[in-house]
Amino acid sequence: MAGSPNSNLRGFNHAVQTLLKQPSQFLPHLTIPTFTHLPEDLGPHLVGAAGKGPAGTPQLTSPEKPRTPRIPKICALVLDKDNTLCPPKTTTFPPQILTKLAELRNSPTSPFYHATNPHSILIVSNRAGSHPNFDGEVRELEDQLAHLRIPVFRLPADTEKKPFCGDEVVQWFRERKVIQSPNEIAVVGDRLGTDVLMAGMMGSWSVWCKEGVFEPGEEGKPERNILEKMEVWIEKYLREKRGFTAPAPKGWEE
């Protein structure tokens, strides 16, 4: 975790290179307005991407018959903090976000029910948990979520921020016996260049919260910054103009 607490220049460079070489990796498997719209049973909502190749073209088992896609089994959630769970650079959870987290943790039908899957939700932020400067934020977040048993990921020493810490996140879930494969994880966040790219590097599924933490038109919703505007434009261009779709996680078709 050495270096500037806010620097992620390598992440920006990686996003640019990916956009040039593998643009479909920029696309999420599922797009929702905000985290409050996240389906409890995610698998069926991701299945549209499960039969797609790297360029978004259907994979066929024979010349005549398309492959029937499997339904992903999602056992773990990786949640971004800034502009996904809280307004940027704050530890303030809007009431509707806390309600949604409580529903996911307290519903016996939820795959993330605390009694049967206690380690299934992890906050992974490029702020809280990424540098000692933000240790206060970690304590504030975990104090508020203690009743839901949702921790913040501490970036190990000499590990880079999202999108490069995916292997460490997968290992965190493996050590707690939450998953057997990375394709049982869904990464949920507001940024294509970090959250969605990390999901692809992990071999996991991605969910893009397109509007961030605020609903469209909600009072207090800030204007998108330049990078956020660019990502929205890029996603629309790749999907509508180029016809790309998100590739299934690596290994999913094997």
Question: Features of this protein?
Answer:
alpha/beta
The arrangement of helices and strands along the chain is HEHEHEHHEHEH
Count of individual helical segments = 7
* Overall mean confidence score, pLDDT: 90
Q: Report the CATH topology name of the domain at 72-216 and 225-244.
A: Rossmann fold
Helix content: 25-40%
Poorly predicted regions: 49-62
The proportion of strand residues reads 5-15%
Structural class based on helices, strands and sheet pairing: alpha/beta
> Which CATH C-level class of the domain at 72-216 and 225-244 is it?
Alpha Beta
Radius of gyration: 18 Å
Order of strands across the main sheet: 1-5-4-2-3
CATH superfamily of the domain at 72-216 and 225-244: HAD superfamily/HAD-like
DSSP E strands, number: 5
First-residue to last-residue Cα separation = 36 Å
Q: If classified by CATH, what would the architecture of the domain at 72-216 and 225-244 be?
A: 3-Layer(aba) Sandwich
Pfam families: PGP_phosphatase (PF09419)
Protein name: HAD-superfamily phosphatase subfamily IIIA
InterPro entries: HAD-like_sf, HAD_sf, PGP_Pase
GO molecular function: phosphatidylglycerophosphatase activity
Summarize the structure.
Helix content is 30%, strand content 8%. By secondary structure, it is an alpha/beta fold. It is globular.
Task: Give an overview in words.
This protein has 254 residues and is of the alpha/beta class. It has a domain at 72-216 and 225-244: HAD superfamily/HAD-like (Rossmann fold), CATH 3.40.50.1000. It is built from seven helices and five strands. The protein has helices spanning 9-21, 43-46, 95-106, 135-144, 166-175, 192-202, 226-241; strands at 30-32, 76-79, 121-123, 185-189, 205-209. A five-stranded parallel sheet has the order 1-5-4-2-3, covered by helices on one side. Helix 6 links the parallel strand 4 (185-189) and strand 5 (205-209). The longest helix has 16 residues, at 226-241. The protein is globular, with a radius of gyration of 18 Å. The model is unreliable at 49-62 (pLDDT under 50).
